[in-house]
Amino acid sequence: MDMKQFQDTAFTLFGVHLSDKQLGQFSLYERHLQTWNQDINLTAISDTDGIRQKHFLDSISVMTVLRKLAIHSVIDIGTGAGFPGMVMKILLPDIRLTLVESIGKKVQFCEFVAQELGMSKVTVTKARAEELGQTLEHREKYDVAIARAVAELSILSEYLLPFVTRGGIMVAQKGEKGPAETHTAQNAIQLLGGKVRFVHQVTLPGVVEERYLIEIEKIASTPEQYPRRVGIPSKRPLR
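Predicted structure:
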């Protein structure tokens, strides 16, 4: 997949037109990802086609949910090498973006890429979601909280929903178990102040596995005891 095919696919599948500037940012991002990945395990997917299909286009797919919203702030939990948050910033350059990652080398990479791509209003934080979600600076301060393949949905909801302001949304990028996880997590989502709005199926070129975007609206404040202490949500998921 060359960059023209990448550009055409983004428009055909997701209605996203990539400008020459944005294509240049994606090319630079890709180059730095491949270079850093030679020394640091940023991602298991490092070939050009894999990056464009399974990282870039997968992240761009989130626009099927976000394009209809007025978005000023986004937080990406467990961002790794910057997906999907950094891609959202390329597409929506005016948003205030916070990337949260617990591994120092990945934090350094995201900081480097943001600088190299000339991005402003980007904060990269080395932290755990359970701790950050209890701080006044971040709690219920974001229009959108997003994560990709971090944990099952009931756990992920406890990580993400505390960051979302009322009327905002949480978006979870999930694999083939997405619909089943959504059904299982209904009670946890409601307890945390959310309501499932829609489950979007996503098709990616060259990817056989089913992909879903779980869109959850924040309709009430999250009770103050959530998120629980570090490690507790994954050990004792809400049911």
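Summary: Strands lie at 73-77, 96-101, 122-126, 142-148, 164-174, 194-202, 211-218.
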